[in-house]
Amino acid sequence: MRAMSAMKRAATETRTEMIKANWLAGLLALALFSNAQYQGWNLFGHEGSSQTARAVAGRGHHK
After folding, report:
1. Per-residue pLDDT tens over the stretch 1-31
2. How far apart are CA 35 and CA 23, in angstroms?
3. Which one of 22, 31, 58, 60 is separated from 15 by 20 to 30 angstroms, measured CA to CA?
4. C-alpha angle with apex 19: 1 to 3, nearest 5 degrees?
5. Is 40 left (phi over 0), alpha (psi -120 to 50) or beta?
6. Every domain of the chain and the residues it spans
7. Which superkingdom, per the lineage (predicted)?
8. Sign of the CA dihedral 42, 46, 49, 54?
9. Integer Cα distance of 22 and 15 in angstroms
10. If residue 42 lies in a helix (H) or strand (E), which one and from where to where?
């Protein structure tokens, strides 16, 4: 019984550590994304601007 209890405790501790690590990774990613938005960085700036041009051009031919 003691061996089973020790295994259960170890599994619970590992799970708790993983949850904390996931929270930390999520908060770091959110901080990085927020900083990028604040500074005006945009990974898809070129694609987004070309898409709006196509969308505007496409509206002229709509019947």
Report:
1. 566 687 778 778 888 999 999 999 999 999 9
2. 18
3. 31
4. 10
5. left
6. 2-59
7. Bacteria
8. negative
9. 11
10. none
